[in-house]
Amino acid sequence: MDNYHRQQRVNTFLVPLLAVISGLVVAAVLIIFTDNSPFAAFEELFKAGFGCSSLNRCAFFTTLERATPLMLTGLSAVVAFRSGMFSIGQEGQFALGALTAAWLGFALDLPPVVHAIVIMLAAMVIGGIYGWIPGVLKVKLNINEVITTIVMNEIAVLFLVYMVNFPLRADRGTTAYSPVIDETAKLMIFMPGSKWGMGFVIAVAAVLAVYFYLWRSAPGYEQRMAGQSSLFALFGGIRNDRAAIRGMFISGALAGLAGAIEVIGVHYRINQDFAPGLGFTGLSVAILGQVHPFGVFLVAILFAGVGLGAQLGLQINLGIPRELGGTVIALMILFVAAEKFYTDGISGLRERWAHFRGQKTAVELAMEEKK
Amino acid sequence: MANAVELRNITKYFPSSNVLANNDVTLSIAEGEVHALVGENGAGKTTLMNIFYGLHQPDSGEILVNGQPVEIHHPDDAIKLGIGMVHQHFKLVPSFTIAENIMLGIEPNQYGMLKKKEEAELVRQLANDFGLPVDPYARIRDLPVGMQQRVEILKALQREAKILILDEPTAVLTPQEVKELLAVVRNLAQRGRTIIFITHKLVEVKDVADRLSVMRGGKMIGTRSVAETSIPDMARMMVGRSVLLELDKKPATPGQVVFKADNITVTDASGLPAVRHISFSVREGEILGIAGVSGNGQTELVEAISGMRPVEGGTFTFVDKDITRRSVGERRKQGMAHIPEDRIKIGLNLETNLDENLVVNRYKLPEFNRLGFMILSAMKRFASFAVKQFSIAAAQPGEMIATLSGGTCRRWCWRVSCLASRSLSLPTSQRAVWMWAALSLCIGRWWMCGTGRRRCC
After folding, report:
1. Tally of structural domains, chain A
2. Is the minimum CB–CB distance between A362 and chain B shorter than 8 Å?
């Protein structure tokens, strides 16, 4: 591998890492304004988000539980982006998946395991179809997928609100809830004290499946080529339109699965404000994770941990508003968007370092290679 | 004669694409001369001129204008120094008039109100001064390309350009327009303007330039007097070895019709008809040329033939089969190959590696594909086979395409297209000399061995 390749590889890891560090540095400044020591605050945040004092009181398990939906919505975004579709419809597909699970969770009468599997498959189909629609609209009528997915998010969330308030409403309390799902529909939980369980395993399996689909299978190859260079794909005989629609269906199915797992693995019923924002956070996870399934895996855990740490560690123990966790995450995404700033900065530093050590700079190396 | 421009030891490296575009380039241009800057695509001509015009900053080297060292950080600095540039792609506002375009940013005004009449009068005067008559009130969008180019030149002259850079000005013109442009260039030189004329058409160099400088692979090969250099010599400087400019081929002996286009109509990206009711046929063992200035429907026609663009009407017949509704892949399977006009944008995916680029038209074959899963080892083997077969030294399996040079990319693209084909739909603008020579050799040989034999070169 030549110098150039090594640099590209390094950048793939260094950019998100530097973004995370930059986010933390700016957050430290914000913490100083609250009259707390940033070091103490980060220690609290880390302990509450990633620590593990005993098997029964393990914050990290809760982090993994919370990372599960982020992983799946992140994967959903990865699959869509890699087919060249900038789909931001995860929120709506997630809502419909959750609604499907909440309904089938009490409406069906099936043996354990089978019940859960049927629910998840149904949620994937519903979410998939909800992703397929903007895909078809884009391919057949050239309607921008960003707009259709935003609008369809709105429709799906309002539909969920209606369903929870009227047809699925379980009691006459002030907030509307759907009925609690049957025991047969619930996913297995590994450790008491958190809802970390089968859902996480499914999410990890999905990470591997998406990786194999995109980088090892022929349909995934078609999808990536279409996403990276549509003219090239067309020239090579790939059906771009089919690749895009397939990508959107899979993307929707993954977001729908996320919604279902959140219901049958964590909450067991839905209210009208069910888990807002998990779809959108999935987009951020995908972007910070360099639009790669393995990146999504790590970033989803990071985000979940920071969120939990801010909530428990900062808010409860130090009295720092838990919104700080969201701020940290937002800062990290902001800094990833500044990718060029880092790559230029990194290569500039490299040049200076090489110069300092009396070695050849990249320009000189390139000149030599040509000779 | 004093040197109007001196570029000394200019080096420019693009880290993002790992390209050393200018490698220690030195160039002097005398005042009042027409200086041709020639070289193949990707030789670094445009980069050098962009540096001179302030669009890029060099990594090292210095620039002298009229003997004074200058710093050019921005095109504004260049304009202040009397440098004007006419880009390959015009930078005009289509809905504005000629006068409005020429005076954009320097409109005559009083109390913040534009003085339209004065503006038009100034433009008319400028145009007459230089013998380039234009109608100041005509709108750009209604003008032919040659006229738009004239507006670009006037725009530079209005800003008192003493040194005018023309970046491949003839690429978009009809032969008649080229003639007019060359006359304009000579005329401007006689009026004391210094012209840098970027091109790779050697005949034009012979026609218009006083001296020429040749670039190759980012380096300056040399500067010669045009009068004392023959076209084959120029070509040798450009390519680095002698070039076969004429192909020794026997007269064609075409067989039966293999491809037929009947009453074909194709629309362009904006839905307007680009190809209207075209019919033609190609016989076995025949080379059919389609001529025309770019933008007259050739691109759309080629895309329709290869299956990338649907047709609105008419039929294509290929070896007695109607292929009008067949997909790109199906046409390929029948033995049709296509080397795209823009081999980098269409023929390659720069964001991925060599292996994945190579299999794009054959990833469905069983040797690369087992139950829908790609066989990475077979892809790698194929890449090393292709590297050896085409002796492209710079390439390694697994290498990112973006790290290869432009020329290497183009070579890849069409050689790979050649691998399994029965009829070729060829690039319409075969510009670089060696590409032309190599390609005509390829087609020539392929043509000589006739159809049916699945190899070329």
Report:
1. 2
2. yes
